[in-house]
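pls read this stuff:
=====
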Amino acid sequence: MALQRQHIVQRYEDDLLRLRSLMEEMGGLVEHQLSLVLTGITENNIPTALQVVKQDNAIDSLEHEIETLAIRLLALRGPMAGDLREIIASIPMASALERMGDYAGSIARRLSQMEQPIPRSARLALDEMGRLVLEHLRQVMDALGRKDAQAAQAIWQADQLVDQYCSAMTQDYLEQMVHQPQTISLYITLLFIIRNLERIGDHTTNLAERVVFIITGTRLPTARPHGHNDSPSALPNTL
């Protein structure tokens, strides 16, 4: 009986480690997708950006595997406390990562459909915003791996800066459309790209909330800080 119990415990621990490994792998793939898109923007390299689309199936498969494993753990292993929170949270976290991959793919497709190259100033601004979003994603996945609630909460709060980039760039591109009507098509596409980057940032803060919940069992405030009303003039070389 003792040997059977030991086997059950070992199997549970192996499954939990597998779940964590899948989450890490999925986060790494989404990071790679976003990195490819940003390289496509900064280097005006559409084939590189479109590599993102080829990874969609791998992302979807990982989400399905995470969900299946989490449900099995809940149904068969009776997890408690921190393990229970981690297993429950893994399902919406995997869904958030899948959506982030979708947004990266959407950016890649829009880049491939553009009829003119992105102006250098816009490429630099998009790269700054995108690199910030990418760094936040890397940090929140690292916080998950290290079980660092303080680091995760810092990312949750740092989303304000992403919002500031979005607001400043949106305002600038709308003005460009008014003063240069021939650029309307270009800047509409750029506005969609900005919005997708912002949504990736929003999902990153959702991940941060889940990480804090896994570690502490508490939830962050419903209304998270936003930077839409802050002055965009404080942004470093944004536009």
